[in-house]
Amino acid sequence: MVLAFVEHDGGELDDASAQTLTLARDLATGVDEPLEAIAFGPEATAVAHDAGVYGATVVNAVEHDDLDNYAPEAYARTVVQCAEGTGTDAVVAPGTDRGSEVLAHAAAKLDETMAAEVVEVDPDGDAYQLTRQRWGGTLLEHARLDADTKVLTVAPNEVSASPTDDDPADVNPFTPDLEAGDLRVQCLRTEASDTEGVPLGEARIVVSGGRGTDGDFEALEELAERLPDAAVGASRAAVNEGWRPHDDQIGQTGTKIAPEIYIPCGISGAVQHMVGCKGAENILAVNTDPDAAIVGKADWVVVANLHEVVPAVVEELDRR
Ligand code: FAD
């Protein structure tokens, strides 16, 4: 079996989990094993529809009072118990905060190594040939993973999620046998951030600002409001200045985005910023400096003052 840990919102898979199932499906076909998913929470059984669409035949649904809230070690114990005794070839998860944390604990409990941020995997006898990201995605590493149970996370937004015509997965209610100490760390409360509109990671268009905005994001917000499914982001310099919340940060230590169009304004294009937007299909940069690093990385560049260009674009959109 190939077992995929998936995350969901009320039974609806998130993008990274759909991408993970897509990679896991190809892997399961390659090793001639079935693909199963494992989902947690009160609506885990509702994942059956989406998991089936992405190729899982079974969803192991963990609906357990102690596990309604995220608890990394208990989740890992559950994943390991679900995998054990079934000749599981691989345990796979999205390379999100939670997926990475759960699989790191699971790998330790299985006494196996973990390969993180995988973008491609090919079976090679009893081992796997992997391509994985290093240094925030600036480097691709080819590696061979030889283990009884291979444990790997899939780099978000690097694999296209591709649905099938398959039926919903069967549901297997799964109850773990938790041990003392598994619930040492539990998420007690989740607060939605008060940012309105489209989440940054899901926006079709992202307008973002850096130090060059001088803290004035008004025109950038107005532009985003006028574009379809658009969100406002920021560089770390802008976040460090306190101009934007950390949720808005794009980059190595922020959100990774994959919009159709990315519009960085007053952002120099440091490598730590660019690893967060390398999934963007097109980049349209606004910068006063024709020698800024972003100029060489963008598809289009407007060499001009953002405080003039962005309000002019907003005005033109309103005029039409
Ligand atoms: P600057 O580099 O100062 O660039 C400002 C740009 O604005 C310049 O190109 C300038 O020409 C232009 N400009 C100025 N005025 C105007 C104007 N009126 N109109 C148009 N253009 C103008 N950074 C991130 O963004 N995200 C991360 O996740 C991140 N993680 C990091 C992790 C580590 C471990 C480290 C060491 C650094 C990290 N950084 C990150 C910081 C990164 O190295 C850069 O310092 C940061 O991205 C710079 O932000 P900036 O481009 O807004 O500012």
From TrEMBL:
Pfam families: ETF, ETF_alpha. One of its GO terms (molecular function) is electron transfer activity. InterPro entries: DHS-like_NAD/FAD-binding_dom, ETF_a/b_N, ETF_a/FixB, ETF_asu_C, Rossmann-like_a/b/a_fold. Transmembrane segments: none annotated. Residues 2-185 form the Electron transfer flavoprotein alpha/beta-subunit N-terminal domain. One of its GO terms (biological process) is fatty acid beta-oxidation using acyl-CoA dehydrogenase. It comes from the Archaea. SUPFAM superfamilies: Adenine nucleotide alpha hydrolases-like, DHS-like NAD/FAD-binding domain. Belongs to the ETF alpha-subunit/FixB family. This is Electron transfer flavoprotein alpha subunit.
